[in-house]
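Hey, sorry to bother you again with one of my protein questions. A protein chain has come my way and I'm curious about its shape. I'm sending you its amino acid sequence along with the backbone structure tokens. I owe you a coffee for this, so here goes:
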Amino acid sequence: MTDTADQIIGIYRRHGLAWEAGRSRSLFEKVWLDRFRALLPCGGTVLDLGCGSADPVAGYFIERGFAVTGIDTSPPLLGLARERFPEHRWLLSDMRGLSLPRRFDGILAWNSFFHLRWDDQRRMFEVFQRHGAPAAALMFTSGPAHGEAIGALQGERLFHASLDGDEYRALLDAHGFDVVAYVREDPDCNGHTVWLARARSG
């Protein structure tokens, strides 16, 4: 499925606006966003990897006084984010190999990280570690088990992949994060598998 994985950036550049139009605004993620927010200092900084149009997830944090830096590879979606929240930073960049000259109180990769191949996901833990401030919160979604899956967006094949839960735990530990909460296929979050971790401060 390697060729399908290579198409992810192009798909969201071509169809990002269609995806955004159909994206739920119900904020079904709120229970997890609240848990993540509880680990952040008041008025802290959030790095949103795969921020899309910033609505509704980045907007949730902005409305609560956090400073958001969003990363995405889709210019149409970033254009919407800049229109909606011009006082925040929205950068056209690939999360893989990202190297910003600052660290953040929280790092979020909600429904974005799981579009990467297995090896790219493994390498992302160095990115998380490099951009996390002491005691930074980290939250990402994954699949429920090791494997690959294909969805669809506007008739094009949409790649997803996941490592095994034990490997995610090992990668978090090796890069200085402790698991705070984990739910496999959470029924209170539309069946998402969610990881919430916190960087060790010492």
Notes: The radius of gyration is 16 Å. The beta strands are 45-49, 67-72, 89-92, 104-109, 132-142, 147-153, 156-162, 177-186, 192-199. The helical segments are 2-5, 8-22, 30-38, 57-63, 75-84, 118-131, 165-174. Residues 2-199 form a domain with the Rossmann fold fold (CATH 3.40.50.150).
